[in-house]
Amino acid sequence: MTTTHRLRLSEMTGLTPLITTTTVADPQAAYRALAERWGTIAPVELEPGINAWLVLGHHELCQVVRNEQLFSRDPNNWRMFYEGVVPPDSGLGPMMFPRDNCYFADGDKHRRLRAPLDEGLAGLDEHRMSRFIRATCADLIRGFSNQGTADLVSDYAAVVPMLTVAGLFGLPPAQGHQLRAALIALFSSAEDSQPAAHELERILTGAMEARRQAPADDLTTAFLNHNNLRNDYEIQQSMVLMISAGYETTTSWIAQSLRLMLADNRFAGRLRGGRLGLDDALDEVLWRDPPMSNMPARYALVDCELAGMPIERGDALILGLGAANQDPRVHTDDSWLEVGNRSHLAWSAGPHACPAQRAGRMITRIAVDTALHQLHDVTLSVPADEIQLLPSPWTRCPASLPVRFTPSGPVPR
Fold first, then answer.
1. 154: DSSP letter
2. pLDDT tens for each residue of 311-329
3. Is there a domain that residue 237 lies in?
4. What's the whole-number mean pLDDT along residues 173-202?
5. Alpha helix (H) ranges present in 268-356?
6. Domain for residue 66, yes or no?
């Protein structure tokens, strides 16, 4: 940090917009520039006039996520929210305004609302789920395998988790496609994010009504019957959380893993002498391009100091998961030395660590492996550094992944 700043966060101007860390070709260069100026905690701009602290350091991020007494997940503790500084129609709303699910709760309420998610995930029939994912992947590839070209995001990486997660809740494929359009807008935190959130809620409310009339062996029915969820809003918002997190993060993980496997000579081509395998690629993506680069948020409950920066009660802190993973105190620049290292923070840490790591890895591994095995001689159609990203301050999901391959006959069922 070049100088000690004692201005209030809300008084700072000319700050770096958070979205610049996710839309650039080299996010680590953007994070390093912030760290060189500010240290391991940097003030950033979420929207014009809406500032937050971005936690860049691995140690500092762990401090924040493991201390609910100092840093709350409840946005009702966000000063800019309760003072009305953030407009009600802000694009930040779907990701940062209060909702009745475990993501936005602390302590006993968090544990009560998280239990249905944990139990639902623990109760998944992994063999049946694996068969479903493999069949879904094969069906999707069958649809374009004779063409010789495809977009492995819109035709594949975005569809596999969407159909899988929708299927877990008993939603038909057509509604799964509607969910995808709504979730892309929601994660953009742009002007259309709030209408997208309302559309997502409308779809899920319809699913709840249908399952009340005709219960089934799916997570919608399980949530409706769970004693920890006390009203329809808690049920709906728990479904919103599980579907949105499961879809967005897995899509990004699949897309970034395919990009790495096709572009990096250490992997590319297990057919062309690549020395590292699929699980190594999945882990490297979690280190270098995690599914959530920046995760909202924690809110300071008291005035305190973190890494020499003055944090005031009500300040928002964004978890820079992508930045913390590259903290030189815990990570080297030699990717060969990191093979097998899974001490990253891609899933956060503490009470709010992602509960779906095992399911997400299953979906991602099957999807990537199936594409690489069934698309013959598959290569990127554009240089890897020209691949565009979906605009979002939170994620770095490729907007498209154009590939070419040798057309083949029908994929065996």
1. I
2. 999 999 999 999 999 888 7
3. yes
4. 88
5. 278-288, 321-325
6. yes
